[in-house]
Amino acid sequence: MKYPISFEAITKDVEYCEEVIKMHDQASTYLKKFEWCKAIKNSTLYLNLGVTLCIFLFEIENLASKEDNFLWMMVGDIPPMYLDVYGSKTTVDVLERYTALAKDWISSIELGESIDDCYPFEAMPTIEMANLLKTRVNLIQNSIIPNIDEISLPPSLLLL
Prior knowledge:
Strand order of the largest sheet: 1-2-3-4-5
Oligomer: single chain
Strand content: 15-25%
């Protein structure tokens, strides 16, 4: 199967189909919690590791910014995260940014510092949660990033 795949085109032929649908539902629910996300227009699957990790690109109706309508969304056995498309242009960029932000959060927890300036992960700021996230970050850095295809945004979004 060649990625990216429009979510509407996902069929039983897609590996981990039911898990991908579950991850898409989680990503959609996460985005809809934000007041600025009025609606989800489209979504595309860029990385599919089932419930372990999926990366989607969402097109939304953004009440806060008419120009900022595309977001990367990571979900799976990790705290969910969205990123704009201005800094991260490929699946590898997205995962590297996720791990950098997670390491910052983990470090703040380990040092007993405030996480106010960290990405607002949906996780309790405890040593136990920091250790669990550290395990996932190591998996992403050591096993996933070196072994995935680097898939870029569509050409029209690369210009942003």
